[in-house]
Amino acid sequence: DTGVSQDPRHKITKRGQNVTFRCDPISEHNRLYWYRQTLGQGPEFLTYFQNEAQLEKSRLLSDRFSAERPKGSFSTLEIQRTEQGDSAMYLCASSPPQSSYNEQFFGPGTRLTVL
Amino acid sequence: AQSVSQHNHHVILSEAASLELGCNYSYGGTVNLFWYVQYPGQHLQLLLKYFSGDPLVKGIKGFEAEFIKSKFSFNLRKPSVQWSDTAEYFCAVNERNDYKLSFGAGTTVTVRA
């Protein structure tokens, strides 16, 4: 399968715990994006990387959230001290370097439930 | 920031009926426009896209969309739906030279056999 992959697919945690999600983009895609989707809403932009550089972060991304893409390949999104309001689907997407039109390919998402 | 509005939250129709889903966006400059579809249990997939040129674009599975710049709209259409078109449909926009997508809230389409 050459699509975007995300791990885990589901995560249940207790309030206050830290969680980390991983995203593997399509090979050779240099841009990687994180979005969050809550029930009844469309995805909301969180942050994006071009290679290993994090170029933009949304105001939605509080200090408890951190994302990395250390070698310009896979990325991790960590949430510290989770809150019930963090419960959502976390989506990762990637786009190729020649795409000035920014066609993004999405992964299956990680569904987070904070109890 | 971009604002994207999808007119219908839930649409129910019978097979062979025609479908039109509305999408309006707020930005007045040059944009790229997308429709994504999410079938039950699957991830978001690109249905069609508009960057420039002919404002009527054709996508996969018989879908098409028309960009009307004066109305800031990008409505999705299909002349005759099938049961397999049951899914959630999202309109998305990004400003040229800005990589983040802004999505509408989505429209759930239920096609009855």
Protein architecture, described:
The complex is a heterodimer of chains A (115) and B (113). Chain A is mainly beta. Chain B has 113 residues and is mostly beta strands. In chain B, strands 2, 5, 6, 10, 11 and 12 form a 6-stranded mixed sheet that branches. In chain B, strands 3-9-8-7 form a 4-stranded antiparallel sheet, with no helix packed on it. In chain B, a hairpin with a 6-residue loop joins strand 10 and strand 11. Chain B is globular, with a radius of gyration of 13 Å. In chain B, 35% of the residues are buried. Chains A and B meet through strand 4, strand 5 and strand 10 of A and strand 5, strand 6, strand 10 and strand 11 of B.
User: Helical stretch count of chain B?
Assistant: 0
The percent range for strand residues of chain B is over 45%
The overall pLDDT of chain A, averaged over residues, is 93
Helix content of chain A: under 10%
Distance between the termini of chain B: 40 Å
Q: How would you spell out the order of helices and strands of chain B?
A: EEEEEEEEEEEE
Largest sheet of chain A: 7 strands, mixed
What Rg of chain B is obtained from the alpha carbons, in whole angstroms? 13 Å
**Could you say which overall geometry of chain A the principal axes of the C-alpha atoms support?**
globular
Principal-axis shape of chain B: globular
Total DSSP helices of chain A: 0
Largest interface: A-B, 25 and 22 residues
Query: Structural class of the secondary structure composition of chain B?
Result: mainly beta
Total beta-strand segments of chain A: 11
End-to-end gap of chain A: 33 Å
